[in-house]
Design a protein that fits this description.
Length: 474
């Protein structure tokens, strides 16, 4: 197959963007983007009872968070019903399909008898080769004339060649008796009309490929390249379900996973490039190929996800990280960061982003930036502000006030103070952490001072020196 690569993601809008669907979308996106191709999005909304606008919105939001941009407008499968029916009637006119007048009761009776006789329940319609003059004035479905002899070979880029005997294929219904097209027909027509060259989807669709190929071949259309990827399992080796934890892409956004970390992890989940675990989007686009997809189900590992998320936070651009952090706050119904705090956060990122695996962890480390005076000291911090510690802060503050506001300058002042008092710096660090952040676990006290600036630092130290434990609410 030559020409531009075109892939698609075609979810059903019956719920959130499942993590398995997110990976399928990602694989299609990577394959197209890495080859200068197109990545299309089609909403398969033919099931009108289960499809909802809310589910469509959730899918679009999940893809937006993951950064999976698509080309062109979103296609609604339901809106193409007339085109799907047109193809069915074209096959009927070419004698590659036929009208079947068998009723549901007749088909059920046939299958019941076949089971009783120990025979195949595959329905063979008596109307396949019937003379049109014998057709009754009654409701009918349109069935394709599937090949009866030989075999259909699905040349799959992941599963290898999969052979299905044609005598195991039924004459699939194309149009129901009410004239509406079935899903199997709609998928083929849409993929052809959208110019899809590569169908990358879950291996639960593998058997569908053989039946769909009968339509491609009957219409004389090019069959796309197939790539059926194994499903995702939980750590216990069973199909991923609610018992394993979060299932929706947006749940992971709500947990504070950076999108780059999620993309990296999902790419690596069932696909490999040597021993590479951590990589950028550009590397993923360059490396991703269908041959690297394994045949066995991948197991979802939350710890690996968190580790990769931490690595991506650590190497992220500071300003971009602040923007994504703000989006996380909005997505979790928290107040966005003010303009002043955004500047401080960006300046503080160098001492925050190492070893933070999620945005909540990053925000906890950034508490000294996000909080305002007067600080609310947590229990551990309050213990570090006893009368002796407050006395130390009271004496140290004027000396810091006149220090050169650089790391060397502040280290020199605190070091000289510790020597003069014959105390170790560790005894000063606890009170300083408490005074500057209201917490006992923080970044370096000198990093906090540099980020906060002289005026805010001195004001917080003075507040802490005057702190009365009984004055703070529990």
């Amino acid at each position: 197959m030559t020409g531009q690569v075109v892939t698609r993601f075609a979810p059903s809008p019956t719920g959130f963007l499942h993590i398995g669907g997110a990976r399928t979308a990602l694989f299609n996106w990577l394959y197209a983007r890495g080859r200068g191709g197109k990545f299309l999005l089609r909403i398969e909304d033919t099931d009108r009872e289960r499809s909802t606008p809310e589910a469509t919105a959730a899918i679009l939001q999940g893809m937006a968070w993951l950064g999976l941009d698509h080309d062109g407008e979103v296609v609604s499968q339901f809106e193409g019903a007339e085109r799907h029916a047109e193809v069915a009637h074209q096959l009927l006119a070419q004698d590659k399909a036929y009208k079947c007048f068998a009723t549901q009761d007749e088909i059920a009776a046939f299958r019941e008898q076949a089971r009783a006789d120990g025979k195949s329940t595959l329905y063979r319609s008596p109307w396949r080769d019937a003379d049109p003059s014998s057709h009754p004035d009654a409701p009918f479905v349109i069935r394709i004339k599937a090949p009866r002899d030989g075999a259909t070979v699905i040349r799959d880029q992941v599963q290898g060649d999969v052979t299905i005997r044609n005598d195991q294929l039924d004459d699939m219904i194309l149009l129901r008796s009410d004239g509406t097209p079935v899903y199997m027909l709609a998928v083929v027509v849409d993929d052809h009309d959208m110019g899809v060259t590569h169908v990358i989807r879950g291996d639960d669709h593998l058997n569908n490929a053989a039946r769909q190929m009968t339509i491609y071949q009957a219409m004389g259309w090019d069959v796309p390249v197939w790539a059926h990827i194994p499903l995702i399992h939980g750590p216990d080796g069973k199909k991923l379900s609610k018992r394993h934890g979060a299932l929706g892409a947006q749940e992971y956004q709500g947990m504070g996973c950076p999108a780059a970390g999620m993309r990296n992890y999902l790419t690596r989940l069932g696909w490999s490039h040597g021993d590479d675990e951590f990589f950028s989007d550009e590397q993923a686009k360059e490396w991703f190929d269908l041959g690297g997809i394994g045949k066995s189900p991948a197991r979802f590992d939350t710890k690996k996800l968190e580790n990769l998320c931490g690595q991506h936070i650590a190497v992220s651009d500071d300003a971009a990280l602040v923007t994504e952090l703000d989006a996380f706050l909005v997505a979790t119904d928290q107040s966005p960061v003010s303009e002043v705090k955004s500047v401080l956060l960006r300046d503080a990122m160098y001492c925050l982003k190492d070893r933070a695996k999620t945005f909540p962890e990053l925000l906890e480390k950034a508490h000294f930036v996000m909080t305002n005076r007067p600080l609310n000291y947590d229990a551990k911090a309050a213990k570090n502000l006893n009368s002796v510690s407050r006395g130390i802060l009271n004496e140290l503050t004027p000396q810091l006030q006149n220090a050169s506001w650089s790391r060397d300058g502040m280290e020199a002042v605190t070091g000289a103070f510790a020597d003069a008092k014959d105390i170790k710096f560790g005894k000063m660090a606890g009170p300083l952490r408490a005074a500057l952040s209201g917490r006992a676990v923080t970044p370096s006290v000198f990093d906090m001072m540099l980020v906060l600036g002289r005026d805010e630092t001195i004001a917080r130290l003075k507040d802490a020196a005057e702190y009365q434990p009984e004055a703070q609410d529990d």
